[in-house]
Design goal:
alpha+beta, 165 residues
């Protein structure tokens, strides 16, 4: 009696397996890159939320001490640790900073203004930027009453004011 002792796969079986692996790769790679992008967006928003919290805490502390709410010109100064930019360029950094005094409030005094462009370079080399602006306290007049309008800040960029990535 003759027994077949052939071991292995036929060419057709190998081609079918390769086609199935190709289909799986075509579906999995885009989903994986979308997951990575969504994770980086979430990490950026978490960082910015922490920065905003630190800015508010610092401004409220200043308000308790001086009765004037003022915000940092450089928002990174409100953080416990200044963000790093790595040798390959990845990380958070301030691209440009402008400070000036606007004229004039109700009393004719100038008040401080600032504008900063904050940038984040991701692992894939893409850069995203946010504009951070501040205005210091100023005297205002309304219906015969004078009051101090407290300082304010604005952040514009991805994830803020309806802007998307």
């Amino acid at each position: 009696m003759n027994k077949l002792t052939h071991k292995g796969f036929t060419l057709v079986e190998l081609i079918i397996v390769m086609v199935l692996l190709g289909i799986l790769a075509a579906v999995a790679v885009p989903r994986m890159s979308q997951s990575i992008m969504a994770g980086e967006e979430a990490a950026e928003q978490k960082f910015l939320a922490s920065m905003i919290s630190a800015i508010e805490i610092q401004a409220n502390d200043k308000f308790v001490r001086t009765s004037r709410k003022e915000y940092e010109h450089d928002p990174f100064n409100a953080l416990d640790k200044y963000p790093q930019t790595y040798e390959n360029g990845e990380g958070w950094y301030v691209e440009s900073q402008n400070n000036w005094t606007d004229c004039c409030d109700h009393r004719g005094n100038g008040y401080d203004r600032s504008s900063i462009t904050i940038k984040h370079r991701r692992n894939d080399g893409n850069e995203y930027s946010w504009n951070y602006e501040t205005r210091g306290p100023r005297y205002q007049h309304n219906d015969g009453q004078e009051y101090i309008e407290q300082g304010v800040y604005w952040i514009n960029g991805p994830g803020f004011n309806g802007q998307t990535y």
